[in-house]
Amino acid sequence: MAATGEMKAPARRAVAPAVSTAPVTARRVLLVRVIVALAVLAVWEGLSRSGLFYGEVIPSLTRIAASLGKLLVDPVFYKNLQVTALETFASLSIGAALGIVTGIVLGANRFLMRAFEPYVYYLSPTPRIILFPVMIMWFGVGPASKVALGALSAYFAVALSTAAGMRQIDAILIRVGRSFRATTWQMATKIYLPAMRVPILNGIRLGMGTAIITVLLAETKLSNQGLGYMIMQVYTRFDMPGLYALLIVVFAIAGACNALIGKLAREQV
Amino acid sequence: MADTLVRKSSSSPSLLFRYGPEITGLASLVVAALLFELLVRVGVINRYVIPPPSDVILAFERVVTEEDILGRSGATAFEMIVAAVAAVLVGVPVGALLHRSPLWRRAMEDWVGALAAAPIVLAFPLFLVLFGRSPKTIIVMAFFHGLAPIILKTIEGLSGTRKVLINVGRSLNMTSSQMFWKILFPSALPVIFTGIRLSWTFVLITVVGVEYLINLGGLGQLINELAERYDLPGTYAAIFFVILVSVFFFILLERVELWLRPAR
Amino acid sequence: MEDIRLQPAMVVDDVVKRFGRGDEIVTAVDHVSFNVAQGEFVSVIGPSGCGKSTLFNIIGGLLGDYEGSVMIGDERISAPHPAVGMVFQEESTFPWRNVIDNVAFPLELQGVAKSERMDRAHHFIDMVGLASFEKNFPSQLSGGMRQRVSIARTLVSQPKILLMDEPFAALDEQTRLLLGDKITQIQQELNQTTLLITHNLTEAVQLSDRIVVMTYRPGKVKRIVDINLKRPRTSDVVGSDAFGHYVAEIWNDLREEASRGMADSESAASRRGAHG
Description:
The complex is a heterotrimer of chains A (269), B (264) and C (276).
Chain A: H1 2-14, H2 26-50, H3 61-72, H4 75-108, H5 110-123, H6 132-139, H7 143-167, H8 171-179, H9 184-221, H10 227-236, H11 240-266
Chain B: H1 2-11, H2 15-18, H3 20-42, H4 53-65, H5 69-100, H6 102-117, H7 124-131, H8 135-159, H9 163-171, H10 176-214, H11 219-228, H12 232-260
Helix pairs in contact in B: 4-12, 5-6, 5-8, 5-10, 6-8, 7-8, 8-10, 9-10, 10-11, 10-12, 11-12
Chain C: H1 2-6, E1 8-19, E2 26-37, E3 41-45, H2 52-60, E4 67-72, E5 75-76, E6 84-87, H3 99-103, H4 105-110, H5 114-127, H6 143-155, E7 161-165, H7 173-190, E8 193-198, H8 201-207, E9 210-214, E10 221-226, H9 241-275
Helix pairs in contact in C: 5-6, 8-9
């Protein structure tokens, strides 16, 4: 017995494992992350001091940190942040409301789904920013054109996700509702809505992501306020540490919003 | 059996009936266009906000002959191809390496995910400084935007290989490279192509978007120029052209993906 | 006792259901008649394709368009009836509600006040043995526990007739036997009139007072068998001689139907193969 057991073990080790079998502990994962992060920072700092890039293209970490500190206490930053936040919020509200209505209509009716969903589906990944000139013609150069473009971006994600969510509701849950003789209103509020909560929130999360980017990009193209405008100003001044600091903050805000809605979607109840 | 076949064909409804919804969808588009035409001609809608659809259709010819939209498509396509191929050539090996090492995978997968979600396009002023106002900037940005989905889907595809297939490989005493090329990679291919489809979609959006934003290169720049010249029908025509080309591109990618998926 | 037994809780009379149009009509349920007495446990058994699920949907009122009649008192069923509580084969708990809110669902629809509906839900959760899981969500429960939640949810509306469609189909044999005990116990406690649709022979004999054996397509009643096993009953009965006798007797009938079903599906598969 013991002999065959020993025979087997090396034989098994000789064949190739699909993946490396070293134990993975949380500590080692953290260690790798810290090492990678430090290495990136070190390379950055090295490049910054090497003089390979002219002037300010890769500023030293301390200068980026200083700019970041300055930015976070700058009232101008908060004024612009407020503009962008309001534009994004407005565009997401409009886009999501229209998207949910469209999604419910497409999800509930097979005829309308076959007639119109392909358009929504195939238009959804087309580049949105190129519609900005049209939005300017329709809504002017002010915040309205940014809101409209943002709403358009959010609309597709929410509509598609809602429609898919509606179709994916487990048929058995609808039968349960009917077996207990739920009224139409009870079916809507107690079965359909809770069952579609996660896909709708996921659609809103995706929609918010594209709405933020679209609003900011529109601001960089033509605007006199907002974070996108601020990015262009910093860029025109060639204030590279400031540009890095601003981009870091914008990426962090976008990531945080994304995580927040993602958490909402994962939560039960 | 012949009986059932005959019955099926004779009872098949007419084309009009079978494609009713699709025809309705198309017809609605035509009706909407005619409605706009009417509203513009009557003067309810200002023709300097929405040009009459007939003008837009006529502008197509001008956009092709005078604005060289086909040549510009070539410039855009070139940037896309370079970025798309680079994303695959880097993304698949990186994904495969991360899959081999559970430690690195756990350490890096979330970061790659964050890269996928990050609004990279917004950093275009930065890339402008780093790479200058040249197609290089556009290509590098598109490459970065297209990289993450390929890495993520490669990891997902490789680790989704069914356990029993891996055991088959083990029972045949396969070496690790045989295991990868004969079992893991073929089994992961459909998922990897899903990553490629997502990636190339991002590449298209980024290339055209950045072209428009920095006014350089192919189709994106054309739209920007036409808009700045206030050539409304031309702008609309160019936008429709880009949308049409994108849609065909997505459909093509989807077809390839479907074709790669194992028959079930 | 005799008197109550004589008034049936439900009468299924000459029910016919056909699907399809023109030449492609399939008769799923073919002139089926039987009744269920007050407090009685009746099972309908048959191979797949005998129209059991169609019958379930008709009695549950989810399939209103049929010939013949299913009567409860003097009402013909054509829509879900308050006297009939359904338990489905598929996992049917609401994933977004915890156990007690799942069970209280029918009371919520009826507009019962919150404190009362919690009390009543609690009572039935206790009955199915999940008292310590009231705040858990379905995703945190095993398949057998989730099915017990569904059963409690149906019982809480206090239906005159409990109608179950293979409620244990997705469970393993041991869980199935134990859950069967639970069902027997509850049924005896509440004197609950129950109609069980199943293809599982041991389950049907273990639980029933009478078994309606159906034929393979078109679904007719082949035979109705009285099960005279002692009550109160537990899963121990599975080991008894009488139990084995009933199983053997009904299997005799079922085997013929099941093999017809198998032959049908095999020839369908070979046809598909020839086409593909």
